[in-house]
């Protein structure tokens, strides 16, 4: 939960700066309801990514023409783990399958691991995944339309939902923000949760890709119970209570190898 809250708070800082242009530390404290020390730590992290520029008493967006998309910030967290999960998940996708591949940092690694493959069809609601796979001759690619969210390269809304709901998939591969025994799988966007839910409902088999930091985390949009998917692919064994619960509900757990 800690990492999810940090990402959400830093996203909110960037949103506020886009709206206001420039803010003081004190103003950010009021908007976010956290201490000045926490704000300064967030600003230092955002400044290291060249997203904000700090000066005495305040902060503004960096002068760079285009801020770094938040998906790319998220991709830097547990990057090696995400890549290992992507490679392991790609091995679960067979030739001739039609795959719903949801937007996200870890699902992007699945897409990268599929490059060079033959005879696979993919439907995605992620602009970056569509771009990565657009020149792969062996992959038949369909990109759902819809409302564009530039920070995450995600497509959502009624147009997306209609495109996704009119297809049936051999396999759905999705990423999540949190994995909890009590609260299930959660994501940070309600709009994206609707799109992912359609992928899950229309798929014969359902795979969740989630690095070890997602276990115990809870975001604000419920997606599904742990029993509602077939496989969770992660990079390290989760706590024993998760392994026992997954075994009890019949959800397989696959631990990706870093050595591949």
Query: What is the helix content?
Result: 40-55%
* Range of strand content: 15-25%
Whole-number average pLDDT? 89
CATH topology of the largest domain: Rossmann fold
How would you sum up this structure, described in words?
- By secondary structure, this protein is an alpha/beta fold.
- The protein has 2 domains: 2-66, Winged helix-like DNA-binding domain superfamily/Winged helix DNA-binding domain (Arc Repressor Mutant, subunit A, Orthogonal Bundle), CATH 1.10.10.10; 73-255, 3-Layer(aba) Sandwich (Rossmann fold).
- It has helices at residues 2-20, 25-32, 36-48, 70-76, 79-90, 105-113, 127-133, 158-165, 190-201, 240-249, and strands at residues 22-24, 52-55, 58-61, 98-101, 120-124, 139-143, 147-149, 154-156, 169-175, 178-180, 184-187, 203-209, 221-224, 231-234, 252-255.
- The strands form 4 sheets. It has a 7-stranded parallel sheet, with helices on both faces.
- The two termini are 29 Å apart.
Short synopsis of the structure:
The protein has helices at residues 2-20, 25-32, 36-48, 70-76, 79-90, 105-113, 127-133, 158-165, 190-201, 240-249; strands spanning 22-24, 52-55, 58-61, 98-101, 120-124, 139-143, 147-149, 154-156, 169-175, 178-180, 184-187, 203-209, 221-224, 231-234, 252-255. By secondary structure, the chain is an alpha/beta fold.
Strand and helix map with partners:
Blueprint: H1 2-20, E1 22-24, H2 25-32, H3 36-48, E2 52-55, E3 58-61, H4 70-76, H5 79-90, E4 98-101, H6 105-113, E5 120-124, H7 127-133, E6 139-143, E7 147-149, E8 154-156, H8 158-165, E9 169-175, E10 178-180, E11 184-187, H9 190-201, E12 203-209, E13 221-224, E14 231-234, H10 240-249, E15 252-255
Parallel strand pairs: 4-5, 4-9, 5-6, 9-12, 12-14, 14-15
Antiparallel strand pairs: 1-3, 2-3, 7-8, 10-11, 11-13
Helix pairs in contact: 5-6, 6-7, 8-9
């Amino acid at each position: 939960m800690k990492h999810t809250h940090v990402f959400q708070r830093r996203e909110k800082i960037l949103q506020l700066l886009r709206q206001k242009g420039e803010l003081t530390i004190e103003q950010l404290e009021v908007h976010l309801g956290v201490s000045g020390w926490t704000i300064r730590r967030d600003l230092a992290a955002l400044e290291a990514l060249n997203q904000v520029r700090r000066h005495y008493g305040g902060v503004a967006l960096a002068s760079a023409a285009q801020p770094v998309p938040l998906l790319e910030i998220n991709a830097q967290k547990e990057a090696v783990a995400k890549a290992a999960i992507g490679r392991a998940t790609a091995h679960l996708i067979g030739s001739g399958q039609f795959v719903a591949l949801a937007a996200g940092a870890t699902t992007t690694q699945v897409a990268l691991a599929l490059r060079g493959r033959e005879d696979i069809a993919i439907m995605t609601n992620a602009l970056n995944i569509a771009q990565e796979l657009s020149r792969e001759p062996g992959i038949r690619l369909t990109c759902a339309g819809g409302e564009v969210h530039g920070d995450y390269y995600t497509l959502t809304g009624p147009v997306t939902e209609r495109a996704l709901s009119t297809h049936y998939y051999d396999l759905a591969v999705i990423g999540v923000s949190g994995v909890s025994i009590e609260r299930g799988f959660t994501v940070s966007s309600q709009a994206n949760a609707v799109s992912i839910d359609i992928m899950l409902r229309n798929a014969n088999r359902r795979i969740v890709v989630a690095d070890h930091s997602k276990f115990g985390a809870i975001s604000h949009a419920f997606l599904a119970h742990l029993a509602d998917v077939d496989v969770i692919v992660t990079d390290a064994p989760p706590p024993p209570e998760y392994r026992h619960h997954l075994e009890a509900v019949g959800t397989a757990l696959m631990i990706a190898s870093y050595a591949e």
